[in-house]
Specification:
Pfam family, one: Sel1
InterPro entries: Sel1-like, TPR-like_helical_dom_sf
Helix content: over 70%
Organism: Pseudomonas lundensis
Protein name: Sel1 repeat family protein
Largest sheet: none
Structural class: mainly alpha
Length: about 150
């Protein structure tokens, strides 16, 4: 029980320090901060998974870090985080070195993001349904449905 409190307090402090450019530029302090982000994400905290997943996916060094970031974003998206679900949809549609682009998977993630209230997800879904893609048929009715939700 005490270790969970320590983990939460350390994570809180690391998030506060993250906003100070000087702290992020200090290698030793940054490693400590990353450790706190990773520990909280591994404890199953959805916000930490989303936050650290975004850091690793966009700023991670190497393919392993980027893949770990996407894994954390998937976990956060499945837990209901709209921002993470949206981003996994973007990664799914773009593909990666190890995975081909998958429009059907992007639709699945963006649908989750719409349900979570992400503002860009219906725009992406409408555009995808208007044009169609490999694995997703063009469907003007679905596109209109998502466009109507924007008004």
């Amino acid at each position: 029980m005490m270790w969970r409190l320590k983990a939460r307090l350390s994570y809180w402090l690391a998030r506060k320090l993250f906003h100070w450019r000087w702290c992020v530029r200090q290698p030793r302090l940054w490693r400590w901060m990353e450790g706190q982000f990773a520990r909280m994400a591994n404890l199953g905290d959805t916000d930490a998974q989303s936050f650290y997943g975004h850091i690793l996916a966009f700023r991670g060094q190497g393919l392993g870090a980027k893949e770990e970031g996407v894994r954390l974003l998937r976990l956060a998206g499945l837990a209901g985080d709209g921002k993470a679900a949206y981003q996994v949809g973007v990664f799914s549609l773009a593909g990666s070195v190890t995975k081909a682009p998958d429009a059907a998977e992007a639709v699945r993630w963006w649908t989750m993001a719409v349900k979570a209230g992400h503002p860009l997800a219906p725009i992406k879904l409408a555009a995808l349904y208007e044009q169609g893609a490999a694995g997703v048929q063009a469907d003007p009715e679905q596109a209109q449905h998502y466009r109507a939700g924007l008004r």
